[in-house]
Amino acid sequence: MCPFKTTVALLSIVLAVLFTVPASAQNGRGTGRGKQGCGCRGQGLGEGVCMNSGQASAPDAIPEKAPGQGMGPMFGPNADESFVTDRDTFHSLLNSHDKIDRSVMKLPTGVTTITTSSDKEVATKIREHVEAMYARVKEHRPIRVRDPLFAELFRQADKIDMKVEPVDGGVRVTETSEDPYVVQLIHSHAGVVSAFVEYGFAEARKNHAVPTDESAPMLNNEQTQHALELSARLDRVYIPALALTNQGKKDAGQKAVARLAAEAPALTAEMAQTVGVEPGQWLLAKEVDKAIREAQSLVGQGQLAQAHGALEPLRNMLLDERRRLGVDYPVDVLSDFHEVMEKIVMPASKAQPTDVDDAMIASLKALSVEASASWSRVEQTDFNLPCFVGLDARKLDTLIADERAALTELHRALRGRDADKILKSARALKPTFARVYTAFGDFHP
Ligand code: HEM
After folding, report:
1. Which of 90, 114, 158, 173 to mutate for ligand 1's pocket (most ligand atoms within 8 Å of CB)?
2. Residue 142: phi, psi to the nearest 5?
3. 437 exposure class (CB count in 10 Å sphere: 0-12, 13-18, 19+)
4. Ligand 1 centre and the CA of 232: distance in Å?
5. Helix, strand or coil, per DSSP, at residue 34
6. Whole-angstrom distance, CA of residue 241 vs CA of residue 349
């Protein structure tokens, strides 16, 4: 394998895509996001909100579920063609784990690892695996997303520099980052790879927690409550701006963006104070301000879709920061669901009935199980909180039940072979979901 070095572009701020790690799987706080951007690709949501997963789909590999329910390769335009090869390679490594030697040297900015085997075939597999994983990190093709640590590693891929060099019987890998939180992530990941080497499949079946972001300030209860209230207030003005620009409603969109521009600076300044940062020093406040000004200028020129695109990353920026600070904001569980939902809806929207084959059905079945579990978290979340002023909790319950019904319909369709019905019920997840999300916006100020 040729030595290669990558410097995956470093982002200057803690931003990026949707997200998440189930709270149950997290060890305290500290999740982040990968890239940003609107991935609706002109499809829009029924209610006009584009929530972007922004990433290629992310198949899992070590089946934890019943046979046949593992996440296989995706179909259609989002196909992950190297999934099967990559899975076979690391399964073979896990099988040969006792023939592998590994050492990890922690650096202040990351790790240097040496992973080798005196067995030539295993050595080749190690090199193949690392090369394949290098490409995945570089190209944002996540794998093993059911494991919080791996999901987070891929989200933060832009902040990781990875250098791979061949050594006798294997590879020397140096992974570094300028972001202290990502350094912790790299350390944890290197430890997990070492555990794979030590325990093989027994370790690979486990999930691994995201490390706590030690650089984040610790908020007390009062600060946390205040951060929740400010998040809800911002959503009340942000969601209408996001939705109405996506719906192409010029006047209403313009008004909503103007209202957001008027209210957001005070809210972010208060947020900065709450978390104990100088507002002028808080990159997040500056980024929020910049995005809103850009949206305002675009909407003024009648470019609604572009204005929507400028606003869209804000949700992820704020979510990132909340998670970094350990603020458990209920609306964020909707974004967790959104990530898996998009993996169902996007390919289904592009597919024709003739594309619905066994592979697609198997993939949809696995994803719908995941979506269903994620929606259970939404169902268990208490949205009936004082911070959600004006929220009609009963109506929200009905909407949440509607999405459950849509999921059940999808499960039912997937038991049969009616391609139209499968595609229709897959696409139907989105408009219902959008109604739940937009319930947190104030459309009638
Ligand atoms: C015995 C089994 C395994 C060995 C020897 C192995 C080896 C390695 C090595 C040497 C690296 C480079 C980073 C480092 O050294 O810390 C790496 C990275 C990676 N491995 Fe594995 N691995 C194994 C199992 C797995 C499994 C089961 C997965 C599950 C998908 C996996 C996914 C990854 C990913 C995503 C990366 C790239 C992430 C990054 O380093 O930033 N590996 N692996």
Report:
1. 90
2. -65, 155
3. buried
4. 39
5. coil
6. 25
> What is the whole-number distance in angstroms between the Cα of residue 174 and the centre of ligand 1?
13
Report, as an integer, the average pLDDT of 372-381. 88
pLDDT category at 369 given cuts 50, 70, 90 is confident
Span 140-189, pLDDT tens digits: 888 887 787 888 888 888 899 999 999 999 999 999 999 888 999 999 99
| Domain membership of residue 312 as a residue range | 38-54+221-325+327-445
Does 216 contact ligand 1 (Cβ within 6 A)?
A: no
List Cα–Cα distances, 39 to 240, 290, 313, 315, 321, in angstroms. 19, 21, 11, 14, 21
Residue 337 shares a structural domain with residue 444? yes
Nearest 10 degrees: CA dihedral of 348, 352, 354, 358? -10
Q: Based on the domain organization, do 229 and 170 belong to the same domain? A: no
Residue from 270, 257, 279 nearest 231 by CA: 270
Where on the phi/psi map is residue 68: left (φ > 0), alpha (ψ -120 to 50), or beta? left
Q: What is the pLDDT of residue 135?
A: 92
Q: Return the pLDDT at 145.
A: 75
pLDDT at 215 over 80: no
More confident residue, 278 or 330: 330
Token pair 């979510």 is found at: 319
How many CB atoms lie under 10 A from the CB of residue 444?
6
30 domain-assigned: no
Name the residue with the closest Cα to ligand 1, atom 16.
Answer: 190
Identify whether residues 48 and 67 lie together within a single domain: no
Residues 166 and 253 in one domain: no
Domain end point (choices 204, 237, 268): 204
110-116/4-7 β-pairing: unpaired
At 147-160, the pLDDT tens digits run 878 888 888 888 99
